[in-house]
Amino acid sequence: MAESIPAVKVAHPPLVAVKGMNDILPPDSARWDWFEDTVRGLMRRYGYLGIRTPIVEPTPLFVRGLGQVTDIVEKEMYSFTDSMNGDALTLRPEGTAGVVRAAVEHSMLYDGGKRLFYIGPMFRHERPQRGRYRQFHQVGVEALGFAGPDVDAEVILMCRALWRELGLADVRLELNCLGRSDERQAHRAALIAHFEAHRERLDAEAQARLYSNPLRILDTKNPALQLMVESAPRLLDYLGDASLRHFEALRAVLDAAGQPYRVNHRLVRGMDYYGLTVFEWVTDRLGAQGTVCGGGRYDGLAELVGGKPAPGIGWGMGIERVLDLVVQSGVQPPPPRPDVYAVVPAPAALPAAMTVAEALRAAGVAVLMHAAGKDAWGSMKSQFKKADASGARTALIFGADELARGEVALKPLRDAAAVQTTRPIADVAAWVHELRNA
Ligand code: ATP
Ligand code: MG
């Protein structure tokens, strides 16, 4: 057998990423970093604290929390059995259920409400296309323990603040009120009667949901059903006083804040846990996947995952879609560039250069060190070329003569008229301000 193996080296077939799951590489990763920095700054100003929950959760968390008759639970979950102990596990398809589970498990609400946010990957087994991936990323907020419409307004307005900070203009707000579950029940009966009257025109999915979850038929993406859905009974007409007051109070804040919105009677959202306020931020610039953020109130979810009743509201934002919109809108995040490029003419200068670079970085200066190639140190010409390409405003040149005098040469790179001067390396603090925020 061994003789039959050819002497030539057989290459392994190339390994590639799982379909629908993407690598995020430089330079694109800089846009992600900028986005996440912007989000974290925003969260700080609104008083939202970070929470990190596991990517893998017990499958029943989502089946119970999201609802059996939902796109996610019916067909999009990456569920598997732990081969070690037989546990039913699922890669999280969304963030809310896990955050509420954690809040209940750790009694986080015993001393009042909590404002939380997360950023991370989510997994859904969908057909990959623009704006729809199998691993995608969300930033989300969950305000737990607050029952009032003021917090509904807060989480919505923080999205607007984010659009503004990102430089995005073309995002519209759609709003609806799903009321309480008894109000939805009354509406549900009317809805079933309406769809039963058109039964033969329903598609297979709508047929299947007619009695299990008729509200979700309103959510259909099938154009053939649009007219029937438009003429369906409106949930808003079934709402009681308390629900209507909640909705009115939210609208009053949005109106006062100058935030336009459209009341969309068909907006029901994908998960069963929503009640009262639901909303989406949508754009026309991303084709079919135009919803960049969706959220709402889920006052029943804590109980569904086995906790005491606790109100909650939040949203989830698709980072891939938002960043696609950033690109479509021509927004250019500030390119990541070092303040200083360290030119090191010869290897002997490296210890001194590294020491100065460390001191500068400790003082807040971004320093990109020259790094030698595999076979060659790198000529001065090639080092200056790299210094220019890096975008740094200043080069520090660690020449042997200067070092012998305890100095380093400083050369402005963006100002052709500027001359090269020297600075003492023992006293970085005296001149570091010249390099910062350049
Ligand atoms: P859609 O109707 O587009 O399937 P959804 O209602 O399933 O969206 P949510 O569960 O509300 O979406 O998730 C919140 C946000 O996460 C969406 O508005 C979208 O921006 C993003 N998102 C959802 N699914 C994906 C996906 N498969 N790939 C990329 N982003 C996604
Ligand atoms: Mg979906």
Notes on the structure:
With 438 residues, the chain is an alpha+beta fold. Helices cover 34% and strands 19% of the residues. It has an 8-stranded mixed sheet, with helices on both faces. A hairpin with a 6-residue loop joins strand 3 and strand 4. The mean pLDDT is 94. Residues 71, 270 line the site of magnesium ion.
What keywords describe this structure?
8-stranded mixed sheet, alpha+beta, Rossmann fold, 438 residues, 16 strands, binds adenosine-5'-triphosphate, 5-stranded mixed sheet, 2 domains, BirA Bifunctional Protein, domain 2, 14 helices, binds magnesium ion
Q: Tell me how many strands there are.
A: 16
Number of helices: 14
Distance between the termini: 67 Å
Annotated CATH topology of the largest domain:
BirA Bifunctional Protein, domain 2
Q: C-alpha Rg, in Å?
A: 28 Å
What is the CATH-assigned architecture of the largest domain?
2-Layer Sandwich
Level of helix content?
A: 25-40%
Considering the protein shown, what is the CATH homologous superfamily of the largest domain?
A: Bira Bifunctional Protein, Domain 2
Low-confidence stretches: none
* Major beta-sheet overview: 8 strands, mixed
Shape: elongated
Bound molecules: adenosine-5'-triphosphate, magnesium ion
Regarding CATH, which class of the largest domain?
Alpha Beta
| Structural class based on helices, strands and sheet pairing | alpha+beta
Task: List SSEs in N-to-C order.
Answer: HEEHHEEHEEHEHHHHEEEHEHEHEHEHEE
Number of domains in the coordinates?
2
Strand content: 15-25%
